């Protein structure tokens, strides 16, 4: 069989593209508007920021009582006041008994008869341990512990809806390491005759352990009117 001899393929000439004018790149037009600032991950929107009303002193506050009516703190002028956030289904709930005993004991003294008050603020923010209505809470305190000191309306002590009184108390007397947040039920604030926060105690502090501080506050001079 006769083999065909193939001739080499002619080399294909290279063609270079004609040199063209360099392309012009157009810079993006700069906006005259200022760049938007991204929201801070821990800062609430301005509409969510809760202002502390116009109250700047303890006696300026008017939290709501058990009937939803303002409880005017001006009636506490010159008194020593123990403020406690309470709950009816908490491991510390038995402190109601200690608070009532403390209340009666101090009230039995000459200085405490007209110069001392305890205010309870029911709060459902800690594991939902005070779910009842204001009326149910009042009945619970009276029937189970014979509470005779004022227990006001249910309130928030932390967060955007916190009672302004508590925002003020936390600011005036931060807790351990400067932490302002209320950690649990039955934290206690003592306000002196001068309207200033004299002490703050954790839930674990028993009411009877506060007697010495309360008597010392009663012996101090009050605010000059």
UniProtKB/TrEMBL annotation:
MF terms in GO: peroxidase activity
Pfam families registered for this protein in UniProt: GSHPx
Keyword line: Oxidoreductase, Peroxidase
Region (Disordered): 23-47
Annotated GO biological process: cellular response to oxidative stress
InterPro entries (alphabetical): Glutathione_peroxidase, GPX_AS, GPX_CS, Thioredoxin-like_sf
CDD domains in UniProt: GSH_Peroxidase
Family, similarity comment: Belongs to the glutathione peroxidase family.
Name assigned to this protein: Glutathione peroxidase
Species, as recorded: Carpinus fangiana
């Amino acid at each position: 069989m006769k083999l065909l001899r193939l001739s080499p393929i002619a080399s294909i000439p290279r063609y270079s593209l004609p040199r063209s004018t360099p392309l012009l790149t157009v810079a993006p037009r700069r906006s005259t508007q200022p760049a938007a600032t991204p929201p801070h991950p821990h800062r609430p929107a301005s509409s969510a920021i809760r202002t502390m009303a116009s109250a700047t002193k303890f006696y300026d506050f008017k939290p709501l009582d058990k009937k939803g009516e303002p409880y005017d703190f001006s009636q506490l002028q010159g008194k020593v006041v123990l403020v406690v956030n309470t709950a009816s289904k908490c491991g510390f709930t038995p402190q109601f008994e200690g608070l009532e005993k403390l209340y009666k004991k101090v009230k039995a003294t000459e200085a405490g008869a007209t110069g001392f008050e305890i205010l309870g603020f029911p709060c459902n923010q800690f594991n939902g341990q005070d779910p009842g209505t204001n009326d149910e809470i009042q009945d619970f305190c009276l029937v189970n512990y014979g509470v005779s000191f004022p227990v006001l309306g249910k309130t928030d002590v932390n967060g955007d809806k916190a009672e302004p009184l508590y925002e003020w108390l936390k600011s005036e007397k931060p807790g351990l390491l400067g932490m302002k947040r209320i950690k649990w039920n039955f934290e206690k604030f003592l306000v002196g005759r001068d309207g200033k926060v004299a002490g703050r105690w954790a839930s674990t502090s028993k009411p009877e352990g506060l007697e010495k501080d309360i008597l010392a506050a009663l012996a101090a001079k009050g605010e000059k009117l």
